[in-house]
Amino acid sequence: MCTSLKLSFSTLQNMSEQLENDDIDLSRLLARVLRRKVLVLAVMVLCCAGAVAYLKLAPKFYETTTKFVYQSSAKQTGNLSALAALAGVSFGGGNTDDGSAYMEDIIKSRDFLSQMSNKEWLVVDTSKRTDTLTPITLEEFWKIKLDSTTKNKEEVLEAVIIGKMLKYKYVAYAQDKKTGIISLTTMFEDPKISHEFNIAVFEELNNTLINKMHFKASENRKFIEERLTEVKGDLRRSEERLLSFKQQNRAWNDPSIQLQEGRLMRDVTINQELALQLQKQYELAKIEESKDMPLLDVIESPRRALSHSKPKRNLVLAAGVVGGIVLGLMLALCLDLWLTERKSFMEQISKAKHDLS
Q1: How far apart are CA 348 and CA 357, in angstroms?
Q2: Which CATH architecture has domain 61-300?
């Protein structure tokens, strides 16, 4: 019992000594920092000054965003559902064509961006264009210069502009998986060009999707038309065979004649049903092809930015202050440790020399 009490007492004593040592270490660290407080303040001021200089010198980007939803072909055909039901045709739920699945690929494709690279834009920044009423190309805006010996200069210039847009994300695409809302964001060094570029991309994207859907509807209509022509020919031939058979066989007593007549009548009935259904599908396909409605429903229209969105002022200043404090503390501790330990080391060397002598 006494042994256990001694052990517990020694354990408590060791813990108290450890806590005291920790307090001493923390107090020593604090003392080291306070001795070099001028250095900490100087580093913090320099970091803050660097953050302010970065905000002044860094290129400013202005952001414009359009929010919209994609009206899929399944939603568009809803207006024709009543007509289809009256015609005996069901659209069904198998149409899963969703343009939003490949919309980002369209926006980032070379063919799509090449149409944007050759256009001219108005700017607000007079450093880019003195006369702001005169449009400017992206080549002039970014001051892109190619070597005079470059072959296929136009193709190379287009590739450079498109590569710059993709690399620095001048055009961004995002879709909310829950709501399906799509955000099309453009970010340029000028607020007006960012706004106009956003509008141009949205309009071109809408036209591309409309042309794609019209092409699919046209191909569908052509296929149904060809198939309808074939079925009408089959119907006409089956009707002629039935008429010829009845004219040649007027006796109804022979079972084989009745069987053959039933087969011919069945062919006529099948071809009639096929022709009727294809005719309905053909009329609906012509209506679908003639539709001209936008596929993109705008929820939030683009607005010209009143202030720059990059670099973020508050974030840069906060990073400068926090980074300055952390860096100042680290430098202060390292400097104080080096000076104090160096002094102790030199004292030990001098004492060793004195003992040897």
Answers
A1: 14
A2: 2-Layer Sandwich (3.30)
Do 91 and 84 form a contact (C-beta atoms < 8 A)? yes
Q: What is the pLDDT along the chain (357 residues), one digit of tens a residue?
A: 444 434 344 544 454 444 444 444 667 777 777 777 788 788 888 999 998 998 888 889 999 999 999 876 544 444 444 444 444 444 444 444 556 667 888 898 888 998 888 899 999 988 888 888 889 999 989 989 888 787 888 889 999 999 999 888 899 999 988 888 999 999 999 999 999 999 999 999 988 888 887 788 888 888 998 998 999 999 899 888 888 888 887 766 677 777 888 888 898 899 899 989 988 888 888 887 776 565 788 999 999 988 888 888 889 889 988 988 888 888 877 877 777 777 676 777 777 777 776
Count the helix, strand and coil residues of the chain and give each as a percent rounded to the nearest 5: 70, 10, 25
**C-alpha to C-alpha distances, 226 to 87, 174, 232, 267, nearest whole angstrom:** 20, 41, 10, 20
Give the phi and the psi of residue 137 in degrees, each rounded to 5: -90, 165
- Domain residue ranges in the chain: 34-58+312-352, 61-300
